[in-house]
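Why does residue order matter? Because the sequence determines the fold. Keep that principle in mind as you read this record.
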Amino acid sequence: MKKIVLVVVAFVSAAAAIAQDKNKTTSKTDLINRAGDHIMLQLSTDHWAGTLPDSIKDHTKGLSRGANIYVMMNKPFKNNPQFSAAFGVGIGSTNMYFKNINIDVKSTATKLPFTSLDSTSHFKKYKLTTAYLEIPVELRFVKDPSRMNKSLKAAIGIKVGTLLSVHTKGKTLQNKSGSTINSYTEKEYNKRFFNSTRLAATGRVGLGNYSIFGSYQITTLLKDGVGPEIHPFEIGFCLSGL
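Structure:
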């Protein structure tokens, strides 16, 4: 955790140095009253990268998706108001969808079991959900600081998070032929196999209050030795304002 905090501090320091070294390129602007993207709502498609075995790749299903919401502080640099540093806090969540598989998060084994259910009873809908409390940090650029809600914007950053919850959810039990057995719903909670801290690189580009964003998790989803080296990433839409 200390190493991650040091990375965050180093990033903020570097961002400040870059922006302060810029020559002033815009006229004086009322920076106090300008909008600063203090709230960000993100909707994403979620994916797993890394050394994934076929037992996982062959059982992904549909559109995995996530949602993030952050409250941010935005601090423009005095020497160049086109640049600013932003930091805040929020919640990030992901929902990875699978077919004909069981991810036994409650297992007492040393490795997280991913069990194929192609030839036996399985859930029609099945997902793995993770939720994190996160601190995002961004170096932001806006082409016209006086028209934040209409100007071209871009940002790069990092976010550090601590794991709040992990659970699987299966809904509608079917037999191996795909016929419904019953409408049973099952939830299982356990964080034992998952890294408690995550660090991800982020980026955004857009116009006004609308942008496209992406993030890539540098740390692995699972702890060392308990499963494949999974690096989640997300691509999606961001609505920002205030």
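The chain has one domain: 2-23+32-241.
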